[in-house]
Design a protein that fits this description.
Length: 107
């Protein structure tokens, strides 16, 4: 069983509305599986680890997991990088820059 991670960004100071973006899934013994986004989603695209890293580090945002635990951004990125030598996903996965991506919804 895995844990999904999300980015909360674009938080409105007035009404507290926000944007929630699924970053991906971490499962025991496997590499991190990113949720990729083609054009749209208010960003040109999120289709590489480099792009995810830019978004995570450069926006007023925070990361949390599906259990509502907040994870510091730099620690989260180190965690993802630490999983790169584990088993690679095969089903409906595209490998970009050495990282695993899926371009549709998953959990």
């Amino acid at each position: 069983m895995g844990i999904n991670y999300y980015l909360i960004t674009d938080i409105c100071n007035c009404c507290k509305r926000y944007r929630k973006i699924h970053i991906g899934l971490s499962s025991e013994g496997w590499r991190f599986k990113f949720r990729g986004y083609d054009k749209g989603y208010d960003d040109p695209s999120i289709s590489t680890f480099t792009r995810w890293k830019e978004i995570i580090l450069n926006r007023k945002s925070f990361i949390f997991d599906e259990n509502c635990k907040i994870i510091p951004r730099k620690r989260f990125l180190k965690y993802i990088e630490s999983k790169q030598n584990l088993k690679k996903y095969e089903h409906k996965i595209v490998t970009i820059e050495g990282y695993d991506f899926r371009f549709n919804e998953f959990s």
